[in-house]
Amino acid sequence: MIWNRPPYPWPAGKRSAACFSVDVDANAPWYWQHRTDLPDTLAAREHRQYGLRAGLARMVAMLDRLGIQGSFFVPAVVAYDNPELLPGLLERGHEIALHGYFHELVSDINDEQFTQALESSIELFVSQTGLRPQGFRSPAWEMTPHMLSELARLDLWDSSLMGEDVPYGIAGVTEVPVRWDNDDAIFFKFLGAGDKSPRPDEEVERQWANDAAAQTRDGGLFMLTVHDWISGRAARVEMLERILQKLIEDDSVWCTSCGQIAAHHKTLSNTLDVSLDMLTPINDRKTKNG
Length: 290
Hints:
By secondary structure, the protein is an alpha/beta fold. It is built from eleven helices and ten strands. The strands form three sheets. Strands 1, 2, 3, 8 and 9 form a five-stranded parallel sheet that branches. Strands 7-6-10 form a three-stranded mixed sheet.
């Protein structure tokens, strides 16, 4: 535990940072969920395709108006099915990063399968853009020690964990933290019977705006994560624009991409680096009493 720690050293003149990130999942989670037997039903597939047909373009137009860079996390299968996606985002000045191959869940795969999916995703990104991706976000925001070791081996930053208000290091990987309560899926995702009813846009906007204001006053990072098929509707894009506009108007807030934040963190010395000692079995830990 650190008492009275100094403020995080953001770039000169900046007190805090904000990042707008988009998980372009499309049908990847649906493919993974039904990987052994794809059903003939259309509703979920069509709902998920909404982002690529309408929502994503609306979000990119919003970012153009605001003049800021977004961070887009794309499962490889989505890029494979839409070969114009990655080059198009890069042409518009945005950041692209990895998000699994089929949006495979950590609980469903072993270490070897993760490594294979990660390396195959990198290969696809390079083949479509000529550029090697620099960052990763785990589907469903879960990580394991093996995953971290592979990201370190391949020199990739991560944006999947929630252990800080600011960037930090974990097992040799630069972590750009996220927050579940700043993700649109927990408030708005609805795919049919069994899902909770979506929350009102006005309620969520108020919550996110309050968190953004508090985080930036406190010198932290405000990370907002949305999905183009969920928040790509006109009313929600207008909501997002209102939140981001206030951040842009504050000269003390660094509005930038995940990759720029990770690159800045790597230039710093004596920054917080978390080990994985907490994963040692309790019975194997030594205590003062032996």
